[in-house]
Amino acid sequence: QQQVKQSPQSLIVQKGGISIINCAYENTAFDYFPWYQQFPGKGPALLIAIRPDVSEKKEGRFTISFNKSAKQFSLHIMDSQPGDSATYFCAAARGSTLGRLYFGRGTQLTVWP
Amino acid sequence: EAGVAQSPRYKIIEKRQSVAFWCNPISGHATLYWYQQILGQGPKLLIQFQNNGVVDDSQLPKDRFSAERLKGVDSTLKIQPAKLEDSAVYLCASSSGTSGRLIYEQYFGPGTRLTVT
Predict the structure, then answer these.
(1) Cβ-defined contact of A46 to B103 (cutoff 8 Å)
(2) pLDDT in tens, A25-52
(3) What is the average pLDDT score of chain B?
(4) A100 contacts in B (CB within 8 Å)?
(5) DSSP A32-78
(6) Which of A24, A41, B89, B101 could link B37 by a cystine bridge, Cβ 3.0 to 4.6 Å?
(7) Which 8-state DSSP code applies to residue B100?
(8) In this predicted model, what pLDDT tens digit does every residue of B8-38 receive, in sequence order?
């Protein structure tokens, strides 16, 4: 079964707008939540990650918000740019599985100029 | 620092044929992963190595898939015989650590796109 559920499947945002992608999980043993960015023909690249002991992490225009009680986390892209157009994957991992990542199905983001 | 290298980039075979993919991880990275990414889905782990040893192959279809990691560095993934549903991108990733934060920071190669006809 899908361990991490991601929405929306696709997202269209105007340049300068805020892109928001949501993920939910069930397994409370997960202790690491990364976001990956993938461009066509490339492998996924680690964008930003968070642990459940913090509620928010910001790196440049990218912010992860984490809600432990709701078992949800989200990626916010501020001032979205056409170069941000890519597929974004959320993922989750737990220490007992030695680094195995469980990925969401992905969100295809298109930023219009 | 050179990234994860994979070859070939594309492969087209007929069902029931065999195919092999090669991966060279980032130098010094102890942990190596093979993922399968079906179109429209996120990557799914097939097998994970730490140095020479397999630590997780629970999702590997062992009747047709096999993998090895030579001297704790390069790795090959083989499919024999291939089925139509094996059409996917096969991604190799590596991480520098064997536990904690470093094992989670995985660096992916560009992948091999396999088409089975």
Answers:
(1) no
(2) 999 989 899 999 999 989 999 999 998 8
(3) 93
(4) 45, 48, 56
(5) BEEEEEE-TTS--EEEEEE-TT-SEEEETTEEEEEETTTTEEEEEES
(6) B89
(7) H
(8) 999 999 999 999 999 999 999 989 999 999 9
